[in-house]
Amino acid sequence: METSPIPVLTVQTAPFDDQRPGTSGLRRKTAVFEGKKNYLQNYIQSLLSSIDLRDRQGCTMVVGSDGRYFSRAATEVIVQMAAANGIGRLVIGHNGLLSTPAVSCIIRKIKAIGGIILTASHSPGGPVGDFGIKFNVANGGPSPDTVMEKISQVSRTLEEYAICPDLRIDLSRLGRQEFDLENKFKPFRVEIIDSVEVYLQMLRNIFDFSAIKSLLTGPDQLKLHIDAMNGVMGPYVRRILCDELGAPANSAVNCVPLEDFGGQPPEPNLTYASSLVDAMKGGDFGFGAAFDADGDRYMILGENGFFVNPSDSLAVMAANLAAIPYFRQQGVKGFARSMATSTALDRVAKAMKLALYETPAGWRYFGNLMDSGRCSLCGEESFGTGSDHIREKDGLWSVLMWLSIMAARKQTVEQIVREHWAKFGRHYYCRFDYEALDPRVAFYLMRDLEAIIIDKAFMSQRFSVGDHVYSVEKSENFEYVDPVDGTVARNQVSANVALPQ
């Protein structure tokens, strides 16, 4: 029985004035996306329209989510609108799930034009939580400023969007689904793929899996406690750490992705991953880790709850790259860190005689450095670390880095970190997360803070804390000139560094 082609409709709409994406895409309360008429559709149309029509026609895009509430409904809208806007093929994770690192990996593997990731990272899920949409470009990394500005420009004048409302897909069925559309010569194709497989294959080519497996299964096996925090990482942890590398099934907890992440923010830090901290303090496990909702950030704990701050974690990885087959084969080109990250990495770079780049907050700034061959390893103070294997920070890759280093050095987490401090010195930094701030109060606070720290009188001031005296070594309103394309980023974050005298 012949079926009629699916109609393509043009729907009239009105623009919104708050759809400029930020560092991690567009993030709003879920109720805004779900309840405001055409809010989701407007943004997706703006995103698709930011791609040149000639590049868009017949191209391939990747779509994935961290499984939070509203993801399935949003995925269906994205499919309907991608089809109506000339996209030829969508590659989507099974049940709509793909970690952010996996999306970056797949984009690069299949040479897609980009990918849409439905995530609000560590923010709460559920109907009263947050929802977000990220757009990663063809190199697999987050959108650069030029793309975000183009999306914003389109969103401010948008009057209509295109959609195929009758198009339905089955996210639970692996394989290819094809659809005939009106006014289109070739069928529109959707491929539902295994969420883990392509990413797993990449990791096999980076690490010595046999060495890690020996660490986790030998007579003196390292006992793990891994908390997926009911985000997207559950299937990855089960498949890779347990099935592939031999960790017992009970090594991993909270591995079922839930729309509200079990009622807790999926934030891998000492506050929200407190159950992991408590379990590690008992001394029964030698290595613990937690991941955020979309799997790009992580936290590492050693035996008895020994905490590895993210700046130290990055520096330890840099100092031990020889333990990883990928870096032995590819070589190490240089390092990069966000300006808010401690200078621990700088000491390693100096010892290895490698370039060190200091960038603004936002992973997109690392992409140019990696694409141009300047940077092999990079990270930021918010528990994000990655390398040039993809163009995103990568939580599970970071965990495998640590396990590889432990296997090579035959030491505990604490021993490795303390030896690193003894060799390179110990660096301290503070991070404070403020939530639900009044924007006006925040604006005036930052204005006044900037006025203080750029005042010449602030330089070389001394402060006494107990028996220690500290002097200000550096303070600035950070400005970054990209060494690849010369673009300038100003007014990032004001910071100061104080050293004991």
UniProtKB/TrEMBL annotation:
Xref: Gene3D superfamilies: Alpha-D-Glucose-1,6-Bisphosphate, subunit A, domain 3 (3.40.120.10), Alpha-D-phosphohexomutase, C-terminal domain (3.30.310.50)
Pfam families: PGM1_C_vert_fung, PGM_PMM_I, PGM_PMM_II, PGM_PMM_III
Claim: Phosphoprotein is one of the keywords in the record: yes
Keyword Hydrolase: no
InterPro entries found in the cross-reference section: A-D-PHexomutase_a/b/a-I, A-D-PHexomutase_a/b/a-I/II/III, A-D-PHexomutase_a/b/a-II, A-D-PHexomutase_a/b/a-III, A-D-PHexomutase_C_sf, Alpha-D-phosphohexomutase_SF, PGM
Source taxon at top rank: Eukaryota
GO MF assignments: phosphoglucomutase activity
GO BP annotations listed: carbohydrate metabolic process; myofibril assembly; striated muscle tissue development
GO cellular component, one term: adherens junction
Keyword list, A-Z: Phosphoprotein
Residue ranges constituting the Alpha-D-phosphohexomutase alpha/beta/alpha domain according to the UniProt record: 19-160, 199-305, 313-424
Protein family membership: Belongs to the phosphohexose mutase family.
Name this protein carries in UniProt: Phosphoglucomutase 5
Species for this entry: Takifugu rubripes
Organismal lineage: Eukaryota, Metazoa, Chordata, Craniata, Vertebrata
